[in-house]
Write a structure and sequence with these properties.
The structure is a homodimer. Chain A is of the alpha/beta class. Chain A has ten helices and ten strands.
Chain lengths: 310, 310
């Protein structure tokens, strides 16, 4: 399956089954990081990346994305230092729904190659892809494996197969990674001693049976379009998400205050500052269409209240 | 179930479901340890305890058990320092099959109480009990909860319900632990950010259905007795295990060499030095009786070869 999705020949020993993508990222960082090593990721970010890096004595370095949440290569270039051990990207992205293009990935890969050479050390690329199969409008997620040898993919089946809570995923690594055997051994040891030991056995059988099933992307696309319509009517600025089930619009007022107004209307949103970008909120559209339609008047009321506070 | 087994009233929020006992121990140490904090455990020990403590910047301190593998209180008393954060015990024990009596537990609890007071800090007691329901000869495993308030129990269902590989267990903490709420929060956060996130959902339902089922202890007792007979005939010294499915006999020659002789006879044993005690081996009797009977001549041949090397 990985070989097919990434159009590259990956053998079974280059894949380590894990307790979900969070487990996958933790064992990657446990295997790679020495104390003080830096891991760079674009901001806004999934807040738990801070913990995953700090768990293993690494230093998390957020690095601003562009206004449209695409990768900001200049910011990456400034952020990379001799202490950089890895760059972590997440596409489709949580919280923004952004998806990085082939050009962005290839430019990032070139930059990492250059910097690795300049500093005489490997800088790894880690791609967290739990939403890989949740993309809209006929787009596809480019595979980092085509652009960079020293790269890892962390995957979870929980979104694709709607197996929320089953803790089943994997790490795949590039078949031409430097010191591949040593790194595979380190990942397997990390998986064991961090206490994951193995991916849940029942769930392993389950995904073996249905790994080629597809999530009903059309359903999510319709939900996204409804939510976009509502935000437009409310007068909010936003980037239309290309994947995942999140979007990250700008708020007309302070994000904490706006979340409070939404809460009064029984709508749950997460303040953008939690993701490193205030005056935005994260909304999830993994709820039924009726729910989105029903919340529309409430959302518009909150926007109106907010406009009076500006 | 925990309330019943430990005869103490434990509420749902004092139990955190985890990805097995290894996951449980990792989140306990992540929640408790500051860098350099010491965790003491009896030797011989389960070798992964070293990793579980070091994962979270703790310092593992093995402390010799008595000759019969019971708890050596004097050794504990010498091992405890102002840097001691916790004592970790495992009863029934892997690798020895030993089980600690009520007297041993209560003396250890008194010692910890005394030392906590002397150093003006809490020293926690952590009990790793995956084999709690695998005990023989009508014995029962005393509950540490009756003797010590600042205590945790780490449990796994995988042995009791023969769910090997399903990664399902829990942490239970004493309802009268100091700063209980803060510690529960820390455990929940650690469970999340270490990447376990939650215990596998399917397995949670499974154990909810069959948590009161009992392992067929009689089967294991018969296997133990057969293995003890074989060891006696081979002239090996051993402590008869009271629980678990391990035993830890003395070897007539160097443990590595003895394991090689066994390997020539197609018998798999683990050298004692891996558990901190050379000139012993760990044998597992979680195999069918026929297998044990079939290996008897092989085992005796290995013992004879060894006797010629002394």
């Amino acid at each position: 399956k990985v070989s097919k999705e990434h159009q590259i020949n990956i053998s079974a020993n280059e894949i380590i089954m894990t307790c979900g993508a969070a487990g996958a990222l933790n064992i990657i960082f446990k295997a790679l990081l020495d104390p003080g090593d830096e891991v760079i990721f674009p901001s806004p970010y999934f807040v738990e990346y801070f913990f995953y890096v700090e768990n293993h004595q690494g230093k998390p370095i957020p690095c601003p994305a562009n206004e449209d949440f695409s990768l900001n290569l200049e910011a990456f270039e400034r952020a990379i230092t001799p202490k950089t051990k890895a760059v972590l990207i997440n596409s489709p992205n949580n919280p923004t729904g952004q998806l990085y293009s082939e050009r962005e990935i290839s430019e990032l890969a070139n930059l990492l190659q250059e910097k690795s050479k300049a500093y005489g050390k490997v800088i790894y690329l880690v791609s967290d892809e739990p939403y890989r199969n949740l993309v809209f409008d006929g787009t596809e997620v480019p595979s980092i494996f085509h652009y960079y040898n020293n790269s890892f993919v962390a995957y979870s089946f929980s979104k694709e197969l709607s197996l929320a809570g089953e803790r089943i995923g994997f790490v795949a690594l590039h078949p031409e990674m430097e010191n591949k055997e040593k790194i595979i051994d380190a990942l397997i040891l990390a998986n064991r001693i961090l206490g994951f030991v193995n991916a849940p056995a029942l769930a392993q059988r389950l995904v073996a049976e249905c790994a080629f099933e597809k999530v009903a992307v059309e359903i999510y696309k319709r939900r996204r379009d409804i939510l976009c319509e509502i935000l437009k009517e409310g007068g909010l600025e936003f980037i239309k998400p290309k994947g995942s089930f999140f979007m990250f619009p700008k708020t007309p007022i302070d994000d904490l205050k706006f979340c409070e107004l939404l809460k009064e209307e029984l709508i749950l949103a997460v303040p953008g500052r939690g993701f490193g970008l205030p005056n935005h909120i994260r909304l999830a559209f993994c709820v039924p269409e009726e729910t989105l339609q029903r919340m529309k008047p409430n959302f518009l009321r909150a926007c109106e209240k907010a406009s009076k506070l500006i």
